[in-house]
Amino acid sequence: DSRRIVLLLDEADRFLAADREGNEGEARTGASYGTLLELKRLLDESEKRFKFVLAGLHDVQRTSRDPNTPLAHLGSPLCIGPLLGDGEALEARALIEVPLSTLGYRFEHPDLPTRILSHTNYYPSLIQLFCSHLLDHVANPSKAHFSPKSTPPFVILAEHVEEAYRSQKLRSAIRDRFKWTLDLDPRYKLIALLIASDSAEPPEAPEKRFTAKEIQEGALTYWPQGFDDPSPEAFRTILDEMIGLGLLRKTQEGTYMLRSMNVLSVLGTKKEITDELDATARLEPPKPHEYPHLRRAWRVEKGEDALWRSPLTRTQEARVLQRENRACVIFGASIAEAGVLGEFFQATGATHAVTVQDFPSWSKLDYAIGKALDRREPYAVLVVGAASPWTEQWVEDAHRLLRRRRADDATVRVIFLGSPSDALRWCKLDMAAQQRLASLEVETICLAPWTDGAFRAWFEDCQFGPANDATGRRSVQSVTGGWAALVHRFGLSCRERGKTWSEQLASLDASFMSDEVISLFEVPADLLPRVKALCELQGKSPLIEVAPLLDDPALTIDGLEEAFTWARFMGYATASPDGWSVDPVLCRALRGRK
Fold first, then answer.
1. Sign of torsion, CA 479 480 486 492?
2. Cβ neighbours of 322 (radius 10 Å)
3. So what's the pLDDT on residue 94?
């Protein structure tokens, strides 16, 4: 049969959000998207005579990046944005010249269409909007722009283009469209305003660039309550969404900047940007979007219940398993159950081939990557075990090797697993190595504690604990710190009959063994006294001010800063304008250490 059906769904963001969260229990354990799965079933059973297209904004982007959704297995998503790549700049120019030429208009100089493209950032909708205003301006019967003796053709001059651009009506229309995009998520607005605020002063404005870390620190300083997930990977996801929406662009060095200086002009003057930034920072935080922080029940396939949850959040999992030829690094300790990562990737590899292996040398890994690429599988994941003596050079070489191959030829993802000691080595990399890795966009992820949303979903699915009691959940968070090893220990104890969850929690609290917990955190031996000093001195800022409080001459400011950098990288410490804080469970263990 040659008949075809193509279903086109526009504004699909809410549809995907509803399909994901329509059955909350299924969404948490990884079996959601019932409607999308039915559409995929129709596509498969009809041998692709039925097809569907989903068009939308940020939720469509997020869903397409998540490897655990049906969309991830339907091909590469198309990002509809500025007409810049793959010859699209010529199409953008034609979008200006062809319709005007049809109406009898010509440009005095070939640079004038380029000027229009600069004003509109190469966006098709803005190009059409600008040209519409330009046409209204030059065709205005009350103003004689052309001599009837020499026209047609009508020659558009530079002054016509600039007069049209100075039109308050046009600038307001462009500004409104830009702000509609910013208003999709208040975090987009805050980040754009922060970058604009630091870019608004010449002469450095045109070249002002920011690392993801700088943007993250600025956003958390201005509006900490607006980011329910302050992890680096969550921020990189937001920045990637802003690139897809045309708000930012990423440089070859891996830094971020506004798409163009015209974006800056749309945001307003320095004072207007500052006022808008202050107003945004006073907004009520958005309702937490729990799905990115949830953890899939990854042992359900083995016949076990939903007790065992992934070491990775949904956001982390989506970023790690993105279908791109890339290398990434995951750091974690036993307290976050880093030891089960290899088993986790194998258990969740139903849609892709997974190999978990320790490699004694780079040559062995090089051979394995080449072999995986030559097999030309649609998607393969190669996990380099933590026992491998890998270095940052391995990561860099693997990443370069993968990037030389086209994604449609064979997609191979190489994941390096690292210990806390590996993380310390990573933090000590010299600036040149850090810049090389940043320019390659090598993803680094650290395993993190559970959030309140993850706890609530877990309790509801497992049918025990304070699912609907926020105070009770905070008590569980306090005792376990949200660290997976202690959380699962608590969960296993709750299976015993004759005791309530609160009694089990009290028992876990009473049996707290400092030496055992410290071993789970895997703090490198030479860092232990420095991390303990950070626990005792937390809240005092900056570090240089604590020098008179140190009794041990071996505890230098440089040494404390190195320990804090590592602890922060591992998720064991956080910084704020008022000082710093160290994970309370780690502090308790260090203070009670024998």
1. positive
2. 18
3. 94
pLDDT the model gives residue 527: 92
DSSP secondary structure, 285-324, as one string: PPPP--GGG---BTTGGGT--TT-B-SS-HHHHHHHT-SS
By the 8 A CB rule, do 76 and 31 touch? no
Cβ neighbours for 153, distance < 8 A, ≥ 6 positions apart:
104, 105, 106
pTM above threshold 0.70: no
Distance between CA atoms of residues 161 and 158, nearest Å: 5
CA angle 237, 238, 244 (to 5 degrees): 90
> Phi and psi (nearest 5°) for 533?
-65, -40
CA distance 481 to 487: 8
What is each CA distance from 450 to 53, 295, 551, in whole angstroms?
Answer: 35, 9, 36
- pLDDT tens-place string over residues 229-242: 777 878 888 888 88
Return the closest-CA partner of residue 402 out of 373, 374, 432.
Answer: 373
Which two three-digit tokens encode residue 177? 């469209």
Residues paired with residue 580 on neighbouring β-strands, in sequence order: 575
* 303: number of Cβ within 10 Å: 6
The two structure tokens encoding residue 222: 């201005």
User: Nearest to residue 242, comparing CAs of 293, 179, 173, 191?
Assistant: 191
Residue in the structure block whose two tokens are 């292996």? 357
202-206, 279-283, 553-557, 590-594: range with lowest mean pLDDT? 202-206
Cβ neighbourhood burial of 161 (10 Å; 0-12, 13-18, 19+): buried
* Residue indicated by tokens 């997974």: 354
Do residues 161 and 115 touch, judged by C-beta distance below 8 A? yes
Look at residue 27 in the predicted model and tell me its pLDDT.
44
Q: How many Cβ atoms sit within 10 Å of the Cβ of residue 509?
A: 13
Cβ atoms of residues 308 and 297 within 8 Å: yes
Which of 111-120, 178-187, 543-552 holds the top average pLDDT? 111-120
